[in-house]
Amino acid sequence: MRDFSKFIFFQFENCPPLGAHTSIAGGLLNAIYSGEKIGCDVVQLFSKSQIQWKSKPLAEEEVARFKQAVRETKVLPVVVHDSYLINLASADTIIFQKSFTAVIDELQRCELLEIPYLVMHPGAHLGRGEKEGMNQIADSLNKIFKQMERNKTMLLLETTAGQGSHLGYTFEQLKYIIDRSGGNEKIGVCLDTAHIFAAGYDLRTQKSWEISKKQFDKIIGLQKLKIIHANDSKKDLGSRIDRHDRIGKGRIGLKGFSILIKDPDLQKIPFILEIPGGEKAYKEDLRLLKRLRNQS
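Predicted structure:
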């Protein structure tokens, strides 16, 4: 696989790059220009509508204009978030097949746009059982990796809060899927701070974060951690409820994010905001994260 690390981090050697999930309304390139407007180093985006199964193939002109926007702004598109419709754990044959096809399409679009990571929620078993759901996810990914052998985009499983029947709320579940998928270098992890907090992993103090980080490293390995979704949590530790809040306004608090953003083990990992409040909130919280990042 291509080594994307130099592409992403050549200008962020001593601190984590910061960004947000920006809108593609009006065209993919607008995600880049929106990122520049609010002060992003990097951005996450959708490569198509997140609420529709089908989309038009990317036109050469659209791809060229997107890459030109990246060159002009120096804002790097490091990750695409896949469609919210995708559920590789579904027992519904039609939903599963649409999900399988959609993941392949998302990987192909990332390849065209030269985006190194595709984030996906592992899936929800919807009552059929966690083990059966995880097996179907992993076996599906194994088939996808074989079909997409030459694709250079890494697929990242996102940690979840464990709300409802959503899988991936423990590090052990993610490890199981990763190992069974056989993806090796093709699969990694996106850690969502609000999600792991709601799932029961504390990160509010130096001691509690070190315990959670040590668990992640022992079970999955820090080398698999590629993206951090930096979101505060509206709900309590272990609540299993997925509700994002602005940085410092939720139950994690400023101290937790100050600890994370200064952690020597996280200095080459992009921090991406997915908070409520739109561009104004993004701009304000990016400034806040930069102050925390730069504090001695």
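Summary: Residues 154 and 186 are 5 Å apart (CA to CA).
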